[in-house]
Amino acid sequence: MKKLRFLFLAVVSIVLMGFDQSEMENQAPALAERIAEENYRDFILRIINDSNAARFNFTRGDKDLALGKLIPENRLVIDKNLNISVEAPTQWIAPVYQSGEVKNVIVIWEPSEGKYEIAGTGSSYWLTDGVSQLEDDEYYLHSRPFEFDFAYSSSKNRVRPMGDSSTKYFNENGLDPEGVTKTEFIAFVQQHLKSNFHDEFNGESESRLPYLFGGMGVILFIGGLIFLKRQKRSMNG
User: Fold this and answer.
1) pLDDT tens digit string along 37-76?
2) Does the global pTM surpass 0.90?
3) Which of 12, 20, 108, 122 could form a disulfide with 92 if both were Cys (CB 3.0 to 4.6 A apart)?
4) What pLDDT score does 22 carry?
5) Distance from the first to the final alpha carbon of the chain
6) What's the pLDDT score for residue 123?
7) Are the C-beta atoms of residues 108 and 130 closer than 8 Å to each other?
8) What is the sign of the dihedral through the CA atoms of 197, 12, 157 and 86?
């Protein structure tokens, strides 16, 4: 039954759901990259010189630091009818390496237009490691309210989980952790949110399609009867 439900949601998602790649970014603004590069070292040094360095996964006193690529956080926005859209990034993250090993990320944000600052750090190792391994054609998709972190490749039509929470959700639904198609991903989002956040979503997107198909079937049936009746009259006439 669960598999049938998932397949039905996949069909529904083709017609009613989707997110537009044109709204996504996988390249940070040049100014944001420059601000990150110029300021990350002093920011991280304050952490690794503190007694709580291990709390942020750093080795205290080790100043061999490097910064990875700054990556846009493309925000998944999901309304109460389970319609998915993507909003332009307002935050960017970059992995931080210590003695060649990825340790954490820094977060860059834009408090006002054209002004970029380091907002902080702190992320699970799984997500940090996943961010550091994003491929050139992949977009980072993120939804903080639902602990969603995914990598999307339009050229490969693949969405794969990043981080421990999203990987766990995939495993719970029997999905391939190496990635699924965009249609399968949207169906997964529908099913997961309806199952775990039932009060927040009314499911209109799911229920509208059967009524639509049912109505079309009735119209075609009635139309067929009228056509046959007219044909019969013309033959008798």
Assistant:
1) 999 999 999 999 999 999 999 999 999 999 999 999 999 9
2) no
3) 108
4) 76
5) 53
6) 75
7) no
8) negative
Can you spell out the DSSP letters for 73-92? -EEEEE-TT--EEEEPPSEE
Tokens of 190: 């529908």
Tokens matching residue 186: 């949207």
* Residues whose CB is less than 8 angstroms from the CB of residue 184 and which lie 6 or more positions away in sequence, other chains included: 10, 159, 175
Q: How many CB atoms are located within 10 Å of the residue 54 CB?
A: 11
Percentage of the chain modeled with pLDDT above 70: 77
Q: Pick 2-202's CATH classification: 3.30.1330, 3.40.1350, 3.10.500, 3.30.70.
A: 3.10.500
**Please, are residues 80 and 38 in contact by the beta-carbon 8 Å criterion?**
no
Please give the Cα distance from 69 to 58 (Å, whole number).
19
Pairing, β 101-112 against β 91-98:
antiparallel
Amino acid of residue 199: D
Contact (Cβ atoms closer than 8 angstroms) between residue 123 and residue 105: yes
What residue ranges do the domains of the chain occupy? Answer: 2-202
Q: Strand 101-112 vs strand 74-78: parallel, antiparallel, or unpaired?
A: unpaired
Please tell me the total number of residues recorded for the chain in this structure.
237
